[in-house]
Amino acid sequence: MAGNPISRALRWLGRSSEELDSEQAVRVAHGSGAQTIGDCADRQLATLRGRVAVLTLRPRSGTPWLEAELDDGSGSITLIWMGRREIPGVVAGRELKVTGRVSWVDGRRRMYNPHYELL
């Protein structure tokens, strides 16, 4: 009965606040002209908009790497700034617009040294 209008309406009304937040984030990304993270392919040049969920400092071979997990409701991507310990204004919960090349590494999306805009 997946096609039943009543079943569809009940599923729509029963959405969680997390689902509603994700849908809103995707609408905001599309409205700003950004691609959605979930639609990005390997080696694609992309402009993305989302919220920093987690910010981590991970040293690699003695060089600091600042990593931010960006989420737009359709998926997430790890933003990596090599040689940086911090970036003023880039904090967990902050909304960013980033541009760079998407890479798939170990089954996860990454973007190295993206150009960013604080929103």
Overall pLDDT: 84
CATH class: Mainly Beta
By secondary-structure content and strand pairing, the structural class works out as alpha+beta
* SS field, number of helical segments: 2
Strand content of the residues, in percent? 35-45%
- The best one-word shape is elongated
**For the terminal residues, how far apart are their CA atoms?**
43 Å
Helix content: 10-25%
Description of the structure:
The chain is α+β, with helices and mostly antiparallel strands. The chain has one domain: OB fold (Dihydrolipoamide Acetyltransferase, E2P) (Beta Barrel). The protein has two helices and six strands. It has helices at residues 5-13, 17-31; strands spanning 45-60, 63-71, 76-82, 95-105, 108-112, 115-118. It has a five-stranded mixed barrel.
